[in-house]
Amino acid sequence: MATTRIEERIACSLGQGASGLVHFEEGQSLDGGGVLFLLPALLAQGLLKTKEVYAWSSKFYYSLESIVLTLAFMALLRIKNPEQLKQCKPGELGRIIGLDRVPEVKCLRSKIELLTRQQQATHLNTILVDSWYSGDSSRDAEFLYIDGHVRIYYGDKANLPVKYISRQKLCLSATTEYWVNDAKGLPVMMVMGELTEKLQTVIEHQIIPELQKTILLSRQPTFDNTPVCTFIFDREAYEPAFFRRLWEKHKIAIVTYRKNVKDKWPDDCFKSFAVTVLQQTVNMQLCEQGTSLGGYWFREIRRQGETGHQTSIITTHPTLESNFIAGRMFGRWSQENFFRYLIEDYDFDKMVSFGIEPVDPEKEIVNPPYRKLTHQIKKLREKIQRLEARFFPLIQLAIDQPLDNLPAITNKQMEYKEKIDFFKNQEAELINQRSQIKPRLKVCQMPQQQRYNKLKTESKLLMNVIKMVCYRAESSVAQWIAPYLAKAENEKRMVVKQIIQSNADLTPDYEMKSLKVTLHSLSAARYNKAADELVKLLNQTETIFPGTDLKMIFEITA
Known about the structure:
This protein is an alpha+beta fold. It has three domains: 1-119, no CATH class; 124-346, Transposase Inhibitor Protein From Tn5, Chain A, domain 1; 368-437. Helices cover 42% and strands 20% of the residues. It contains 17 helices and 18 strands. Strands 2, 3, 4, 5, 6, 7, 8, 9, 10 and 11 form a ten-stranded mixed sheet that branches. The protein starts with 5 loop residues before the first helix and ends with a strand.
């Protein structure tokens, strides 16, 4: 029976008690006890900054610290939603946080609802950004990767716009989350898209205003030609006027791929450079020239591949070297790797709370019938182009062939001509229908049954912030043990996950004010050696378990 503090719980249910006292008991081989090895990193990443943001009643049995630790440990243990707690051992997980058991599913969901009602997730993210990038670590945020992640919606309650899902090559109902990551690929912040916003709009009206609340965009540049920050993104936000506006209005430089490159630079203008991409040095053939796009002047750097293909990069940064710009641009995959890792390990597309919310009724969108007709016209034009590509060569063929072969060629021409005329008539009808429909309209002008709404966002924002902290803590521990692994890039995160999932013994000593956490042996001797080095580092932190005066002492049995 996991619940043992019956009197305290009854008092809290009657409104006469206080939060459960964090009290540890000796435990052998606690399931998932190795997650405590990441507690110092979680605290260093600001997990308990939640106490500065959220209000919490002292009459609840579970304190705010206990709830936040539970959510963080669930993320690290790959318990992907509250319902999966039913498959875990609640008493053993409870002992890890110093209570008799972790909250039951209904209780945990009610506590998440209490937090989301306060609408403080964005403010919490802002406070965390300031703590992450104070001092020397601010250099990691001089370059920020920005990209959207499409989250598929499989339910039927919400009426969401259809988006193209590149990983499934399908158009499905979905929402878009726009993530900002630093130069190391670590998450910085996330904003939620409502409908079908372009990345340019999100950057100007959501991301920049949020970053201006932090130290990242509030600081002033040292020199006139030094940008406050540099944004790196793909072609989705390509627009020369937008790039110039970011520089002139906010002193923000950009690095992105150039669109519609039709010319080719001479091979002899490319030179070999050593380029660092994601901590790996490779040789690239690079060349830089100035170019005018949309009436604005940009630096253009091209990389020539082994096949002769030239990849074009443009930037408004006035001082960076060409090889450094190329390294940052091609290092954009660190953000894609981050998305993939969170999808597979943290299941961060999972809905946290169910329900829908209205969107701004004055928000202007593309008229869905107009969009549908435009798509049909586009498909018809593609068919016409394919038929014309077969039809026009037949005209030249008829000129060159003998008269005896003309009937067969002419019949084929007639067949193609009839199909082309038929599709062109359909195209004209669709264009006529589309001309009678408004291209754009407000959400309030849509029919009631078809009107767009959105999923509940605050709970998702809160859980994303907690998962950011967990990912950053996991990454820091992985970096700590990397020097002690022969195949660090392939094994460091795997070893961290093995530490988290391993059993551990707890030995509290209230006289000496200590809490000993003894990790059981890992699967290989070299992993135990890395874990032993981690133990030395963790013990130097002299971490005090939240809500107690117990200093944590880490050990490993091997």
